[in-house]
Amino acid sequence: MDEFELIRRFFSTGYPQRADVMLGVGDDSAISRLGRDEELVSCSDTLVAGTHFPPQLPADAVAHRALAANLSDLAAMGASPRWFLLALALPEVEPGWLEQFSAGLARLAGRYQVALIGGDTVRGPLSVTITALGSVPAGAAVRRSGAVDGDLIYVTGTCGDAARAWQALAGGATLAVEDPCYRRFAYPEPRVREGLALRDLASAMIDISDGLHVDLERLLAASEVGGAARAQDVPLSAALVDQVGLVAARELALAGGDDYELCFSVAQSRATDLGRLSADWSCPPVCIGQVRSEPGLSWQLDGRDLASPPPAFQHF
Amino acid sequence: MDEFELIRRFFSTGYPQRADVMLGVGDDSAISRLGRDEELVSCSDTLVAGTHFPPQLPADAVAHRALAANLSDLAAMGASPRWFLLALALPEVEPGWLEQFSAGLARLAGRYQVALIGGDTVRGPLSVTITALGSVPAGAAVRRSGAVDGDLIYVTGTCGDAARAWQALAGGATLAVEDPCYRRFAYPEPRVREGLALRDLASAMIDISDGLHVDLERLLAASEVGGAARAQDVPLSAALVDQVGLVAARELALAGGDDYELCFSVAQSRATDLGRLSADWSCPPVCIGQVRSEPGLSWQLDGRDLASPPPAFQHF
Fold it and tell me: How far does the CA of residue A301 sit from the closest CA of chain B (Å)?
């Protein structure tokens, strides 16, 4: 199977079509139209087998995670996802694997109506790079840098689930497909609708890909502020606590990435608006702390300081 | 060195800045503004060590080739390059290698004023994925599909040089840095200005990344036409002929990719315009054949049919 056959077979049909795609897969580049008064929002994320997922992860989960990581980056800006490009390196062409990969990719792309408009497929050690493109009204994107002293700090959904699964898989364990932690790791749900809804409300936002502590620290540093957070308020899933106990669950929640929840700040005066806005969310935001003017992020657990910040997931 | 240090050190300074970049490297996504009445043109190309370049290729050449391949794809649409994202997988952090990589990338980016606006760096087998973004006035992009019966077929510059170097390097040879074939392979010049200039003249266009024969065949197939081409008219460099002789040079010119020349069709009535337009190009276009209504691409050499089409560079 050559590259063209591979593209034709796995990346031509089953993906959403959009009227603003003037030219999609199959030419040297894709052409897509942005409306007036909009800004293009773009990001790129690579998943490498062994580094970001265990080799035994099903192909549809590999595809799902790669696209979800990118959609999550767009969500963290409050952007509408529109298009993506896929660069796929494969050690060999296994039609069964590609079929499953393509199905997983098309499923998530369909859920958010994001069109596959180009990319590249090459022979090499398994890795997936996706570049996602979205848009925001000019000036409306939520940056990391907008948090100010006194803002409340929130996180959506629950944290630590994906890290628990990754830890178990890396240790050689096999997890049941219905294990909620495994599902969070293999098929994370990017918070696209929530990110969009927060666009006019959040003062700063980031997605949690490397760990709640380090990602919140990055948001605060970009905003040139600090923060105080309460470990006991970080939302944990029942499954996570059940599997590892409360103490380890909190550690995983602070240190683990890959859940792709959103962490954001909101002015205190708008806390009621946030409550109203998020009333029907499946991943309700929980307030876990407050922005302070002094630099640095400190954690307390039930009123006592936590000494050392948890280590983050490191790509290097 | 963690990812952030790596980005800060190698991918923050030395790159062109643009006023239409609202937000560049360092947030979840980049934000860039497209003017009114424009279309976004995007493409993505991956280079894997061992598949697309020999491991001993200098880091600045790896970076140059990865960006050049993408700029060439934009050039083949007649697009203005504007921004790019870099996804870099590295087996280990070697500051010396990264320094050189970054220098090569910034040099070529500077030449065409294309801004690095985001990306990802991860640990993994060496590979480089670049996503390039450009723009065209709405509807002005040159597609592969516009060639019609009677159009003349042109190619810019000379063909086969890079393939000669790749062949020698793959065989374990060491080439002198001043070898013109080596330079074509290691530091190919994307035909950005030429592609832009051809936007209102070419009826169809493609860049030669896989081989003149297969890439021209693709252009003709996309246009639902065929063509007759003359092997003796395909431009060859003196260095190539000198190194391998005329017969092998022609084979390399038809089969070899990686030169990133442009192949395009022009209505016969506009041949004079093309001559005027390209009078001062360093890679003047040469007419190598003509579009025919019957499907397929046939080659003649001095009036005799060439039997078998040359094999193409295969990513798989």
Answer: 29
Q: Which of B166, B157, B206 is nearest to B186 (CA)?
A: B166
Nearest Cα of chain B lies from the Cα of A246 at a distance, in angstroms, of: 30
Would you give the DSSP letter of residue A141? P
Q: What is the chain A residue with the closest CA to B132?
A: A29
- Strands A127-137 and A226-230 turn out to be unpaired
* Contact between chains at A315 and B52 (C-beta distance less than 8 A): no
The amino acid occupying position B303 is: G
**CA end-to-end span of chain A:** 34
Place of tokens 């042109």: B154
In this structure, what is the dihedral angle of CA atoms A137, B140, B287, A28, given to the nearest 10 degrees? 30
Using the 3D structure, point to which of B110, B137, B164 is the last residue of a domain: B137
Residues A199 and A181 placed together within one structural domain of the fold? yes
Q: Does residue B171 or residue A61 have the better pLDDT?
A: A61
Number of domains in chain B: 2
Indicate the residue type of A211: G
Helix spans in chain B (H): 3-11, 59-75, 95-112, 161-170, 180-186, 192-197, 212-222, 238-244, 246-255, 271-277
Q: What is the dihedral of CA A172, A237, A111, A210, to 10 degrees?
A: -60
- Phi–psi pair at A55, nearest 5 degrees: -55, -25
- Residues A77 and A204: their CA atoms lie apart, in Å, by 9
Query: Is pLDDT at A313 greater than 60 in this prediction?
Result: no
Please check whether residues B127 and B16 belong to one and the same domain.
yes
Calculate what percentage of chain A has a pLDDT beyond 70: 96
Same-domain check for residues A93 and A205:
no
Please give the average per-residue pLDDT across B230-240, as a whole number.
97
CB distance B27–A83 less than 8 Å?
no
Residue A262 tokens read as: 């959103």
Query: Structure pTM?
Result: 0.92
- Return the CATH number at B256: 3.90.650.10
Contacts of B18 (CB under 8 A, 6+ apart): B32, B82, B83, B113, B115
How far, in Å, CA of B41 to CA of A204, rounded?
30
> B166 and B123 in one domain?
no
Together in a domain, A107 and A196: no
| Interface contact B133-A33, CB threshold 8 A | no
Looking up residue A48, the CATH number of its domain turns out to be 3.30.1330.10
What is residue A35's predicted lDDT score, i.e. its pLDDT?
A: 77
What range defines the domain where residue B220 resides? 144-305
Q: Would B278 be classed as within a structural domain?
A: yes
pLDDT in tens, A217-247: 999 999 999 999 999 999 999 999 999 999 9
Nearest-Cα residue of chain A relative to residue B90: A316
What is the token pair recorded at A100? 């499953």
Please give the ipTM for the structure prediction.
Answer: 0.91
**Same domain, yes or no: B278 and B162:** yes
